[in-house]
Amino acid sequence: MQQASIITDEMKEQLGVEGTPTILEVEKGHIRMMAEALDDPNPLWQDEEYAKKTRYGGIIAPPALLCNARAGTGRGVQMKSPFLRALAGGDELEYYLPVRPGDVITSVSKITEYNEREGRRGKMLFTIIETTYKNQRGEVVATSRSASISY
Amino acid sequence: MAKQLCYEDVEVGTEIPPLVKRPTTRQLVQWAGASGDYYELHYDKDFAQAQGFPNVLVHGKLKFGLLGQMLTDWIGEGGILRKLSCSYRATDFPGEDLVCKGRVANKYVKDGEHIVECEIWTENPSGEKTTPGNTTVILPSRAQDKKEA
Questions:
Q1: Does ipTM surpass 0.90 in this model?
Q2: Considering its fold, how many domains does chain A have in total?
């Protein structure tokens, strides 16, 4: 007997639907907090005098700044799952432009794929979410593709 | 300042200098605040144990960030990180060594860009790759610098 799919019509209706945008106003203080959390002493993230002499001409954000909840990575979409437990499955970021203090990043996500798999912990649902990050000039600074696992 | 890494300095098989980390529960709380991820699984041991884990877990996206640190240290300010991708394949716990590693898998020139692709991963104390992934970076080229100068 074929088992019923856990992917419902209601879930399928969410495919490709753009979610609520997340707005991140990039501040030096937030970049410093992130560098401290990583324990990453790179002066390019924190030392304005140093960063001025580089080709960036000033402080820029580390790659982690665009891969988290505050940046809206995989957020704002209508996630539905028959399971209660969730884990992050993976993240893929493509970076196109540096992000600097003072930038206002607007990210918009959409669910692009569902996959059912049998895992160590039983049946699992993989939800793939793609996010586009634009700055205040409308330039795409990065895109991401994230997998959320529920089981 | 360290010497800038150039395209000519790497070959297929070249290892990225490992970045040795040992995340503490304090660091997980710092990351929760900086990243906005307040999922209890990463700071509430009772919650984690009720889910069948022995301890709180290191955030996947913190591991992503640490792999990013390894890469930006390696490529220096003259290099560009174009792509960073990883899967949170196995759990890591605070108080244990988490070593970020990588190796050059491919290098080529395309549209004037000197592109280097690498396998990257984090390794736990048992030597298991808990966060395998890959990356694409663009490095400066000495040959190109000479031409431009």
A1: yes
A2: 1
